[in-house]
Every structure is written in structure tokens, then in C-alpha cells.
Design a protein that fits this description.
Elements lengths: L2 H4 L2 H4 L5 H9 L2 E5 L3 H13 L3 E5 L24 H9 L7 E5 L8 H5 L4 E4 L4 H14 L3 E7 L2 E7 L7 H5 L10 H4 L3 H19 L9 E6 L4 E6 L14
Parallel strand pairs: 1-2, 1-4, 2-3, 4-5
Antiparallel strand pairs: 5-6, 6-7, 7-8
Bound molecules: zinc ion (ZN).
Length: about 250
């Protein structure tokens, strides 16, 4: 194994990855939408795993309150756009990975350009309005979407495979962000972000390796204060406005 490939030795020895799996990882393209609490962790993991191409999308600037959990940013970054700082800090972690920063708000007009050509979409958003836009684009384009949200010491996740599993609208349709508790009001444990984001990356990895993702048609609730992981089967809604039979 060449010195360059030594980086991936611990992958190659995994029985269900091997050289064949590593080749798939090295050829894969993933987009992380939102580079905050979840996205800081998932993007870092995806880069060190050695995917081929990581696209990161975020329009925000760094706020002092981000520094408690978003470890890609520093005190001197406050007030500056996140996306280029994130790209600059991610690149040295693995020069094999192409990192494509996009300083964009996720809108209906732009969303398809954000997800096109990607093998998996990893959710780093904190509101449902942009997630609905993302969900619709993933269903239209047939791209797997690993949904996750986190608040307090809890998280919830599902992996959406277009045409096969329930979509986000089937599971959490019609959520009004203005009525929901947020990190601003409830707070967030950085620890739960680590658990949730790592599960997301593992699901993305299984998709890349053409192994069935464990959260397809399953909703996982994580609570670090009770240390409970509860998993429920979920079903598609035939009348779903995004993925239902009438669409
Ligand atoms: Zn649906």
C-alpha cells in the first residue's frame, strides 16, 4: 500500500469495506446543507473518510453563540461568513478531498443546483422551511437524503430513499417553524450533535457502499439525558403532496 493509501488502511481491513468499498468511498460525492452544529461534525467526518467531493452550503456568518459547539470557527471569525472559513479548515484534514463551498441560501430556485450530481444529501439545517425545499428537490432528483434535527439533549433522524421510503413531508408535514422551540430558546448540548451527526455520516457511508441504510423507513429518537435510543417504523402517505401516488 502506498504511503498515500496508508491513510485508509483501517478502512481496507474492515471486512465489509475492503479495497472495493474504499474505491466507492473515494469516488463518492456528498453535500452537507448547513455548516452549523451538525454540519461542522458531519463535514469533518466526511473529509477524513476520504470521499471524492464534498459540497458545503451555508449563507450565515459566525455568531459568538456558535462557538460552544461549532468547532470549525474561532473567536476571530465572529461576523465573518462561515462557508469559506469552514472550507479553509476542512481542506488540510485530507488533501485528497475536493471541497466546494457555496455561500447560498437554500431557495426553490437554487436547490437543484445544490444537490445535483451528489450521491447523498446530509442535513445540517435547523428549520423545516428549507428542509421542505430540500426534501422536494431530493425526491425530484432521486437523491438519498439523511434528515436529522437536534434540540436540548435530543435528536431525531430518518434516511429518505426517494420512491422507497417515506419522505420528510410524510413524517413531519406542515411544521410551522415560528411555533417550534429552537436552539435559541431551548439550548443545545454539543454532545447530542456529535451522536446525531455521526449516525448521519454512517448512514451516508452505507448508501455510498451500497449497503441498506438502517434508518430507511425508520425514525430514530435519541435522548442523551435518559440515554434512550427509540426506533419506530414509519410508512409512506399515499396522499403525500411530495412523494404520494397523485404526484
Ligand atoms: Zn412523502
Amino acid at each position: 500500500m502506498s504511503p498515500k493509501m496508508d491513510r485508509y488502511k483501517r478502512f481496507v481491513v474492515l471486512r465489509d469495506i475492503g479495497k472495493k468499498g474504499l474505491k466507492k468511498i473515494r469516488a463518492s460525492k456528498v453535500v452537507v446543507i448547513g455548516i452549523g452544529g451538525l454540519g461542522s461534525i458531519s463535514s469533518t467526518k466526511l473529509v477524513t473518510l476520504g470521499i471524492k467531493h464534498l459540497r458545503i452550503v451555508d449563507p450565515d456568518v459566525v455568531d459568538a453563540s456558535n462557538l460552544q459547539r461549532q468547532f470549525l470557527y474561532r473567536d476571530q471569525d465572529i461576523g465573518k461568513p462561515k462557508i469559506h472559513l469552514a472550507a479553509r479548515r476542512l481542506r488540510p484534514l485530507n488533501p485528497d478531498v475536493t471541497i466546494e463551498p457555496r455561500e447560498e441560501q437554500l431557495t426553490e430556485d437554487l436547490v437543484e443546483r445544490m444537490v445535483e450530481d451528489m450521491d447523498v444529501v446530509v442535513d445540517g439545517l435547523d428549520r423545516f422551511a428549507p428542509r421542505y425545499i430540500l426534501n422536494r428537490a431530493c425526491i425530484r432528483k432521486g437523491i438519498p437524503y439523511v434528515f436529522a434535527g437536534a434540540l436540548g439533549a435530543t435528536g431525531n433522524l430518518t434516511t429518505i430513499l426517494p420512491g422507497k421510503t417515506p419522505c420528510l413531508e410524510c413524517v413531519y408535514g406542515g411544521v410551522d417553524d415560528t411555533l417550534q422551540p429552537t436552539c435559541h430558546t431551548i439550548g443545545i448540548y454539543p454532545t447530542v450533535l456529535g451522536v446525531v451527526a455521526n449516525i448521519q455520516v454512517h448512514e451516508a457511508l452505507r448508501i455510498i457502499l451500497e449497503q441498506p441504510p438502517r434508518l430507511a423507513s425508520q425514525l430514530l429518537f435519541v435522548d442523551l439525558n435518559t440515554l434512550r435510543f427509540d426506533q419506530f417504523p414509519i410508512a409512506r402517505h399515499l396522499d403525500c403532496p411530495v412523494c404520494g401516488n397523485q404526484v
